[in-house]
């Protein structure tokens, strides 16, 4: 992954603006899950590493904008760029990363460039959808799934498709793998917000609901409740919860098996992803899915 960091730094230093480069160096680079996915599909080469760097710049740009929207002061355990340099600089740095990524993308085959650029458009729409959906209690499962596809899964899907194109593999099958990996990843993340404690999460449990996010387990819960229960659940949405309210939620999650239903949906998506690429017998890609869905929740 050091090679990808070097290429990213080279891209930004080429712009010749010291202040932007210094801000860029303050970004916590993260686990590079998309790069690891691409390299597991296409293998390591000059072209695959450059594409990884482009995709990571796009991902970082989206996180810079995300932190401004959420007014988040911490990113991956470190001060966010907006906390260090202000929201204006964070937005502009995100724009620089997006623009440089697109410039480098123009040097690739159009079949690669069109997949990535389309994904970025959808990613941006996904951000808007997420903000809009947080304005009201959402009970629509399909709207939720479309939002997480755009916001989370679409760039992972694009990464898998591009990896397959570089390697001469079936891009449609790898697209299914990438899309389902992204969807399952987000659903699992939403589940852990409910089932894990603050120490494990690094943030308060049930924080998504407090912030106005009606994730899949809450949608399943809502559908399972009687009218009085539905009214109660709506009354708890987007507010700080006391101990009794938290207990009510957890008891009803258990009674209705709503969390279990969400876990089963994540597992269904994961198994469908493995099935899509089974002919390639890629144990590492299968392992990514299995480690995510075959776990304690």
From TrEMBL:
Its cofactor is Mg(2+). The keyword Transferase applies. Coiled coil: none annotated. One of its GO terms (molecular function) is metal ion binding. Transmembrane segments: none annotated. GO terms for biological process: isoprenoid biosynthetic process. Keywords: Magnesium, Metal-binding, Transferase. Belongs to the FPP/GGPP synthase family. This is Polyprenyl synthetase family protein. The lineage of its organism: Bacteria, Pseudomonadati, Campylobacterota, Epsilonproteobacteria, Campylobacterales.
